[in-house]
Fold this sequence. Notes:
158 residues, single chain, 23% strand, alpha+beta, three-stranded antiparallel β-sheet
Amino acid sequence: DETVWGGSLNALSFTGSTGEIMQRYTDREMTAEYSKLLDIEHLCKAVKNDYEQKCPICGEEMLVRESRDGGVYWQCAGNDYSRNVDQPYPLDGILHCKTCGAPYKFFMKKEPRWVCTEHPKDPKHYQKMRKNDLKLGKMAAMLSQKEMKAVEQYFKKK
């Protein structure tokens, strides 16, 4: 909670003749900023729940990626699946609402989305569908053939 190490030093092979550096900062405020910036809380949670380190679709390793908007997200090494750190891992093959944890159901007007079964009218309780969401068999099974065709058309245009 009060120390940040930063740099590129490989302590096991350091000879002193390279340009590698390692710095140590002891400052609670700075450590809190780094923790927030790197989403350390979410990384520690994933380490404790080793199932979160595997892709729910293909079983490959989930990698931490830096987002264009700041922060991090999870991306499958096989590129089958990704999720934001605030989205629950689909333990049972079902995507769940990040706000309340209820399962999602399919809804489409102009674009496909997943809507919370408990709070379907609240905009905080939905997420836009991503094409790879349908690689989760239970999520794809929620759509009728007609809905699936509409979703495929949407993603073709996009």
